[in-house]
Design brief:
InterPro entries: 4Fe4S_Fe-S-bd, 4Fe4S_Fe_S_CS, RnfB_subfamily
Order of helices and strands: EHEEHEEHEEHEH
CATH class: Alpha Beta
Pfam family, one: Fer4_4
GO molecular function: 4 iron, 4 sulfur cluster binding; metal ion binding
Strand order of the largest sheet: 1-8
Shape: globular
Number of helices: 5
Number of domains: 1
CATH topology: Alpha-Beta Plaits
CATH architecture: 2-Layer Sandwich
Low-confidence stretches: none
Radius of gyration: 15 Å
Organism: Pelotomaculum schinkii
Keywords: 4Fe-4S, Electron transport, Iron, Iron-sulfur, Metal-binding, Transport
Structural class: alpha+beta
Helix content: 25-40%
Largest sheet: 2 strands, antiparallel
Length: 159
Amino acid sequence: MSKILMISPEKCIGCRSCEIICSFEKTNEFNPKHAAVTVLAYEEAAIAVPMMCMQCENPSCMKVCPVGAVEFKDTGAVVINDDKCIGCKMCVSACPMGNIIFNAKERKMVKCDLCGGVPKCAYICPSGAIQYKEATSTNLNKKKIIAEKFKEVFGEVTE
């Protein structure tokens, strides 16, 4: 069975370790601006939420890509094929989670690719807010519920 990233916002302590390790994995630099995960802090509510690609079954980013550069991998990840990508940034606009970025230094789009099946963010998260688990009907349902809540809060791309 495949594995999926599970986010439990109630467990996030706002340490931002996920941003640091992700940026290092993507660019070999510790620069959260280049991470495919962003921790949003809501100080009034005293919570932090790691925002990342939900690896959608029917991704909006894939639908809008004019050259078919957004693809599914065997790991279950939705990835951007750098050889096909023309840098139009349509995927950035289409992503309801807002976690596709353009790395100007490397001139390429960056999004979560599950680190090739070994997501570093899940392994470094000290509180268990990000976990890489076997896909079961229970946690797939939980993931869909969380994704729907995020879409309600942040708006959804029209299909």
